[in-house]
């Protein structure tokens, strides 16, 4: 038997169908009946889809084990492959990396600080100001490079997220199509099962009752089991359809997460980073202005200090000059000392002269005495 196929045209809208009619008795007393298990509502079909189902019902042969086994298997495989594709998409998505890069961006922005310690003192200030501004610019350039690198990576992630959102839209539409296809298999199967149970099975049972033959009873029993097998197959298709039903919100959740992350990245790229750059430019400008003010203050303070020191030096120099200009060529004290030294010198000269005269007189006397003694000695010798 050739493989059965159901074709769908997803572009057609599904008009609403009325609910299943129920039979009621007018005037009958209301009785509470035990609640029946809820049966999943079948999707509404378009007239074209309904015709496809009605035509397909006629091709179903419950007595064929091969047909029962393969019934809807193509749609089940599509759902299985689709689930694998969606799962792979979720597994390969690493939104944690995006979060890490945003955290790195925050750390980079916080790490830039225009305030730093300065060397105190006038010469230390002028020595360090150029280095400080150069250091600020270097740190800004380094931070800007890192921020641009992170921004470029975030843009790549954003592009990938937008592609994923489009891909998830396609997956969502595919899932709807698979769900509709499975539903059409289930609707067609239920219709054929209901009709066979209400016609063929009833006829076989009636024939077995009329004939009383064992083979007729066995034929009725075999057909009933075939109906049960086909019902189990439809139940498997309903379970597969439930997987498809669950996939829709899961796809939307992943899609919403991607959209939120893409919007966060967009906000970071178009708002946070430009704002940071503009603030850093302002910070550098403020730093330039503050340095200019501090430099002017240092220059003014130094100028005042130099003026005070020069005024004090000028005062001392003027006083000394005036004092020296009023002095004579020779100080009186010098004259007194010189005069006293001269008097002392003259006194010493006079004293030395007197002592010389005294020694000469004594020498003369001594010479006279010696001469007398010599003469006397010579006289004594002659006599």
Verbal overview:
With 383 residues, this protein is mainly alpha-helical. It folds into two domains: 47-311, Helix Hairpins, CATH 1.10.287; 332-383. 80% of the residues lie in helices and 0% in strands. The protein is built from seven helices and no strands. The chain has helices spanning 47-57, 65-70, 73-92, 95-111, 122-211, 214-326, 332-382. The protein is rod-shaped. 15% of the residues are buried.
Structure keywords:
single chain; 383 residues; mainly alpha; Helix Hairpins; 2 domains; 7 helices; 0% strand; rod-shaped; disordered N terminus
Number of helices: 7
Q: What is the second-level CATH architecture of the largest domain?
A: Orthogonal Bundle
Instruction: Give the N-to-C terminal Cα separation.
Output: 207 Å
Q: What fold name goes in the CATH topology slot of the largest domain?
A: Helix Hairpins
Average pLDDT rating: 76
In short:
The protein has 383 residues and is an all-alpha fold. Helix content is 80%, strand content 0%. Helix 3 runs parallel beside helix 6, helix 4 packs antiparallel against helix 5 and helix 5 (122-211) runs antiparallel to helix 6.
Please write out the topology.
Layout: H1 47-57, H2 65-70, H3 73-92, H4 95-111, H5 122-211, H6 214-326, H7 332-382
Helix pairs in contact: 1-5, 3-5, 3-6, 4-5, 4-6, 5-6
């Amino acid at each position: 038997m050739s493989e059965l196929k159901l074709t769908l045209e997803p572009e057609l809208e599904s008009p609403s169908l009325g609910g299943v009619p129920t039979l009621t008795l007018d005037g009958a007393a209301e009785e509470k009946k035990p609640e029946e298990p809820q049966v999943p509502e079948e999707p509404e079909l378009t007239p074209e889809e309904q015709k496809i189902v009605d035509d397909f019902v006629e091709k179903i042969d419950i007595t064929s084990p091969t047909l029962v086994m393969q019934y809807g298997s193509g749609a089940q495989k599509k759902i299985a492959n689709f689930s694998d594709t969606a799962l792979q998409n979720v597994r390969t998505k690493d939104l944690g990396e995006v979060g890490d890069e945003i955290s790195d961006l925050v750390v980079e922005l916080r790490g830039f600080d225009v305030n730093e310690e300065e060397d105190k003192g006038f010469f230390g200030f002028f020595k360090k100001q150029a280095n400080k501004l150069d250091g600020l610019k270097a740190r800004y350039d380094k931070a800007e490079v890192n921020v641009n690198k992170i921004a470029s990576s975030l843009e790549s992630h954003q592009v990938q997220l937008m592609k994923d959102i489009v891909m998830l839209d396609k997956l969502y539409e595919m899932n709807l199509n698979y769900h509709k296809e499975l539903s059409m298999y289930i609707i067609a199967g239920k219709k054929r099962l209901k009709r066979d149970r209400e016609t063929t099975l009833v006829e076989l049972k009636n024939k077995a009752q009329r004939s009383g033959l064992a083979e007729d009873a066995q034929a009725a029993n075999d057909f009933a089991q075939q109906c049960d097998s086909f019902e189990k197959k439809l139940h498997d298709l309903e379970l597969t359809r439930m997987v498809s039903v669950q996939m829709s919100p899961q796809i939307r959740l992943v899609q919403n997460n991607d959209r939120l992350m893409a919007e966060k990245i967009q906000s970071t790229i178009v708002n946070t980073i430009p704002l940071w750059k503009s603030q850093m430019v302002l910070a550098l400008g403020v730093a330039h202005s503050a340095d200019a003010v501090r430099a002017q203050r240092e220059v003014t303070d130094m100028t005042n200090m130099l003026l005070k020191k020069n005024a004090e030096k000028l005062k001392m120099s003027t006083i000394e000059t005036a004092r020296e200009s009023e002095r004579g060529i020779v100080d009186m004290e010098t004259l007194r000392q010189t005069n006293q030294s001269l008097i002392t010198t003259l006194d010493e000269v006079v004293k030395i002269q007197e002592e010389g005269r005294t020694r000469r007189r004594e020498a003369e006397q001594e010479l006279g005495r010696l001469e007398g003694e010599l003469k006397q000695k010579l006289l004594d010798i002659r006599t």
